[in-house]
Amino acid sequence: MAGATAAECAAICCCCPCTVMNLLVLAVYKVPAGLCKKAMNKKKRQIAKKRSKSLLHERSSNASASAGGGHAVTTLEEQLVAHTKKEKEAATAAEKGEGGNGCR
Q: Which stretches are tagged as biased composition: Basic and acidic residues (predicted)?
């Protein structure tokens, strides 16, 4: 009988502090970390949704501007070529706007 009582006492003395510590870690670290992670994921989804809407809007405006008014789907390569052309045009316009002062 004395051995069983001592074992129960040892189990309680060992497990209670561990349980309290687990609850403390849960309350102080895990719950706030989970809430922050959830908020960051929600923000990422909102940004991705906003980007996809702007891309869809850009594609639909490109399709309506194309000849015949059909649904022209631009490929990534075509978009890259168009973007590169815009950048080159902007660079040449900036060079022309600087004049001949010799500074670059």
A: 84-98
Residue boundaries of the structural domains of the chain: 1-59
Q: 55-66: buried (b, 16+ CB within 10 Å) or exposed (e) per residue?
A: eeeeeeeeeeee
Over residues 72-104, the pLDDT tens digits come to: 556 788 888 888 898 888 888 887 775 444 444
Residue 59 near residue 73, CB atoms below 8 Å: yes
CB neighbours of 14 closer than 8 A, spacing ≥ 6? none
Measured between alpha carbons, how far is 62 from 79 in angstroms, rounded to an integer? 10
For the entire predicted model, the pTM comes to 0.42
